[in-house]
Amino acid sequence: MKVLVVGPGGREHAMITSLLRDPHVSEVHAAPGNAGIAQDVPVHPLNAQDPEAVVALARELAADLVVVGPEAPLVAGVADALSEAGIPVFGPSREAARIEGSKAFAKEVMAAADVPTARAVATSDIARVRAAFDEFGAPYVVKDDGLAAGKGVVVTADRDRAEAHARECLDAGGAVLVEEFLDGPEVSLFVLSDGTHVVPLQPAQDFKRVRDGDQGPNTGGMGAYTPLDWLPEGFTEDVVERVARPVIDELRRRGTPFTGVLYCGLAVTSRGTRVIEFNARFGDPETQSVLAMLETQLGGLLLDAARGRLAEDRPLQWRPGAAVSIVLAAHNYPGAPRKGDVITGLQDASREEETWVVHAGTERTEAGELVSSGGRVLAVVSRGADLRQARERGYRGIEHITLEGSHYRTDVALAASEGRIEVPGAPAASGPARAAERASGTDGRPAGAAEEQA
User: Fold this and answer.
1) Which CATH number fits the domain that encloses residue 168?
2) I need a labelling partner for 239 at 20 to 30 A (CA). Which of 52, 125, 319, 402 fits?
3) What are the residues whose beta carbons fall under 8 Å from the beta carbon of 335, sequence distance 6 or more?
4) Are residue 50 and residue 131 in the same domain, yes or no?
5) Nearest residue to 138 (alpha-carbon basis) of 151, 154, 115
6) PANTHER family of this UniProt entry (predicted)?
7) Domain count within the chain
8) Residue 246, class by beta-carbon neighbours within 10 Å (0-12 exposed, 13-18 middle, 19+ buried)?
């Protein structure tokens, strides 16, 4: 089959890499793609948020399947236009994508489906924001209600800072969500759906803060790893039954069936698993790690979801070991990133065993130089027999890459590789491991909603 992947980033490059391994996929195209994607498949410049343009390209290519990567085209109705044109599409309709596009709507759906989540107040009134602060107490969790590319959330013990963020969102004409703080480590779980059936992938954990030790502002994600051996037994099955399936059922009941991937952002708290947020697409950079471990052919999975024939009894096959993704970010990210800096060393990075580079914010100059074009420029993805080996390979790989002013976290998957993740309610670590946790401040990343995507 011929597949068109819509989107410009690392998530799309990771999907394309997996699709190219599928013997049933004869051809892959991307729009608009990036410099790394262009090395692998034909790319087509277009506005990914223009439904008519996407439909026209899909028809021109005679695509058997269109995969919509980012959230913005979904909210713009690209999947609706493709469905109306009779073209199979992996990605939800505009209405179903509101599960990500509006946090207040997501809370409404969760309430109707009896899904466990944090208490929250959605409002456009600063007085109600202050009342919610009084009700929930510190740390204060304030979220922009709309899409914010992972940077619309502030979690702080400083009430003045929390109120300032709320005012910024309201002054921009939007609404905010004030939530209670969730303790415990976070988990990302992707669940494929054809509108009725659900099939979970392997859980992952990402690193939202820009600096080591979960310090600094939120980003779109600075790294990720899978699997999560520290999760309690039956975790994935429990999330499917208590979270994913009820939400998919509720959206179908409302007449807006969800076809695509439901990203469940979860906190493993002292009161059980709670939903932090939903996304209507694969997360970045978790996708890079999860697809690196997926042995089952991706093309068939996505086409079956698009055509409404996703069998829940289909066993997915996973590679042994672990995968780690480390994001290299541009100078000044997550502020206004500097663009146009030359990137070198990618071939040397890919010579490390079981290691490759996924492009995100890259482009080619007229002279043929590879340069940065976004905040998160690329990710080095590595597999290993375990997390320790995957980390070692990944960090050796990223050391080969040169990009002036760039930065990356050095602690991606470190706590997990050393057995230092604490799950609330489980026996506490002790001895040297616990001492190391206290020293590093990274034991299990118990920042709850602090790390989430917006």
Assistant:
1) 3.30.1490.20
2) 319
3) none
4) no
5) 154
6) PHOSPHORIBOSYLAMINE--GLYCINE LIGASE, PHOSPHORIBOSYLAMINE--GLYCINE LIGASE, CHLOROPLASTIC
7) 2
8) middle
